[in-house]
Specification:
elongated, alpha+beta
């Protein structure tokens, strides 16, 4: 069995221009976003292992907030998830895979969770 390390940010709410809701209202809609990034794991983590030996959790949060372009209408929430995945891959070569779950809060009628989960593996580098 292979060791793995997954860093997570769960249930982060951010307003994004997306879908029919934004198209009809001109307003962003609230999305509840959870991100799990599989990270290249070190052989060991000792008490004095430096902070830069791991990914900063705030980078995951940034990919779902400040990393999204302002004023851009993502027609599909799949495009939002894809942008988050690509942002994390570009930020750090140690990110091996990303899973993004997005729940569309504006269209829920009885606290149901309507949305998607996307999983992307790091794309193979060109020319490798």
């Amino acid at each position: 069995m292979t060791d793995t390390l997954t860093l997570e940010v769960n249930d982060f709410v951010v307003d994004v221009l997306t879908g029919i809701y934004s198209e009809e209202t001109g307003q962003p809609q609230p999305l509840r976003i959870s991100i799990a990034a599989r990270y290249k794991i070190a052989d060991r983590y000792e008490p004095d292992t430096p902070l830069d030996a791991s990914k900063n959790y705030m980078d995951l949060k940034f990919a779902a907030s400040g990393g999204l372009p302002q004023g851009v209408h993502f027609k599909l929430i799949e495009a939002v998830a894809d942008h988050i995945c690509q942002t994390l891959f570009v930020q750090d070569a140690r990110v091996e895979a990303v899973t993004v779950k997005i729940v569309k809060l504006a269209i829920a009628e009885a606290d149901e969770q309507i949305g998607i989960t996307m999983h992307r593996e790091r794309p193979a580098s060109h020319g490798a």
